[in-house]
Write a structure and sequence with these properties.
The protein is α/β, with parallel strands linked by helices. Helix content is 53%, strand content 11%.
Amino acid sequence: MARRRGLHIALASLAVVGALIAIYFVITVVQVWRVAESDDRSTSQAIVVLGAAQYDGRPSPVFQSRLDHALDLWKAGVAPIIVVTGGKQLGDRFTESSSGANYLLERGVPDTAILRETTSRNSWESLAAASIFLKADGITRVTLVSDPFHMLRTQLIAEDLGLSAITSPTDSSPISGLDEFWQYLSESARVSLGRIFGFDVVARATRTGVTLTRSSSR
C-alpha cells in the first residue's frame, strides 16, 4: 500500500512538472509571436543586422530580406550606422558581413556608415562581438533586424550584453508556411532554455551538441 501511494505521488509530481513545463513553453511561444509582430521604428544609434547565409559574396534570399529592411530603416533616419554581422564557413571566400556590406554599398550606403563584425558563427557570437566595439564607441541603443521569429531571442541576448535593444523585423522573409512554423517552435525552445541556462550556454550547446549544464558555455 505504501509503495503504491509513493508511486502515485511520484506520478502526480511528474504530471505537475510536465504541466508547468508545457505552460512555460506556451507562454514563451506567445512572447516570441508578440515580439515578432512588433516593429519599433523609433530612433536609435545603430541598426544591427543579424547575418545569414551568403553564396560566394551574394547574400542569400533570407539575408537579402534583412539587408533590404535595414536599408529602409537607414534611409528613414532610424539610425546613422548599419552593423552587418557574420563570419564565414570553412571554404568560403567571403564572410556574411562582407557580402552584406557590399550589398549595402551597391545601394548607396557610404562605407563610413557601415560597421562589420566578421568572426561570429551564431547570433550570440554576433551580438557579443558587435557589442564590444559598439559600446567602445558609446553606442548602446540599437535596432535589431532579423526574421520575425528570431526577434525575441536576439533582443534578450543584446540586453544580456548591456545593449538597449529595440526590434524591427523584416516583412519580406522568404521563410513561410511549415518552415516558418517550425522556426517559431525552435526559437521558443531556444528562448525557454536560454532564460534558464543562459543564451551563451545554449548557443555553444547548439553548435557542438554537448549536454546543457551550468558549467558549459556556448
